[in-house]
Amino acid sequence: MTKQDIIGIDAGGTYIKAGLVRNDKIINFRKISVARQGKFLANQLIDITQQLITPSVKTIGVALPGNIDPKKGILHYCHHYANCLFPLPVTKILKTRFRLPISVAHDVDCFGLSEAVLGKGKKYPIVTGLTIGTGLGFVLLIDKKIYHGSQNLIELGHTIVQKGGAKCKCGGIGHLESYVSGQAMITLYQKKTGKKKNTYEIVAAAKKGERAALSIINTISDYLAVGLANIIYSYNPDIIVIGGGLSIIPGLVGPARQKVKKLLFYPEQLKTKIVKAKTPYQSNILGAALITNRKKYG
After folding, report:
1. Which of 14, 93, 155, 181 has its CA at a distance of 20 to 30 angstroms from the CA of residue 226?
2. What percent of the chain has pLDDT over 70?
3. Tens digit of pLDDT for each residue in 158-172?
4. Which residue from 284, 292, 294 is spatially nearest to 101, judged by alpha carbons?
5. Phi then psi for 231, rounded to 5 degrees?
């Protein structure tokens, strides 16, 4: 039988990752750092695809952050790619280069789809996904179908949780993403200590017992609990699956899971399960591959 492989691409704020997917498993993997100059995003999407392309590849799925049009495959804007020329016609660029069907979806939609179909949410009808990485992503799935909203702009990360609070990367004030994200960790730590460190350095400092780093992680955990409570009040899901690079940090998700209990009013709300992703580093890639079957999952 002829192999029909799929390339799934996860374009994040820090790295672009991609995998050659066969039978819902990644059999070849690539990862590159996001560049910042010129036509970097278009060129890097082509480059990482070129590293994985084989004659058995029949389609390509791309997970993107920011404001996208999934039907037209256009990235309208993403504050993680400040130097990119928008709008970026991702589908047109890849289809012109590789002559294959291209599917584009929001990265958190791909994450949620992967977890709802293959991961921790596969037994549940109402699944929500939350990704904590460079930014904060959210998705709602009902019966394995992504709920997009009328303009494809369900943005939990930009809900206001602190009036007059920290400035978000998007320019807004007091957004949840300003307190729960990799960028938030960097900004809050610098404000507290006057020192600029990346997330890896801050987490390392916390592991060594540095009070400032531990305090910042505790603050992020507090606001994560607020976000989780808002999800439960707003959508009453069966399960919330948490992924993204920051989800594995000690002292973040576990404490938030306990703190949220004090923020809920109805005892029945405690039935919503809050779990970490089955494959936190693979879900976006696998979801990008799944989204190529839009008739089933779109």
Report:
1. 14
2. 97
3. 999 999 999 888 889
4. 292
5. -65, -45
The pLDDT value given to residue 194: 97
Distance (Å, whole) CA 93 – CA 99: 10
Q: What is the pTM of this model?
A: 0.90
User: In the chain, what are the domains?
Assistant: 5-109+282-297 (3.30.420.40), 123-276 (3.30.420.40)
Q: How many whole angstroms separate alpha carbon 252 and alpha carbon 42? A: 34
d(CA 76, CA 138): 18
| β-bridge mates for residue 137, sequence order | 131
> Strand 57-64 to strand 102-106: parallel, antiparallel, or no bridges (unpaired)?
parallel
**Do the Cβ atoms of 87 and 74 come closer than 8 Å?**
yes
Q: Which of 192-200's residues contact partners 24+ apart within 8 Å by CB, and which partners?
A: 192/216, 199/245, 199/246
CA–CA distance, 206 with 183 (Å, rounded to integer)? 17
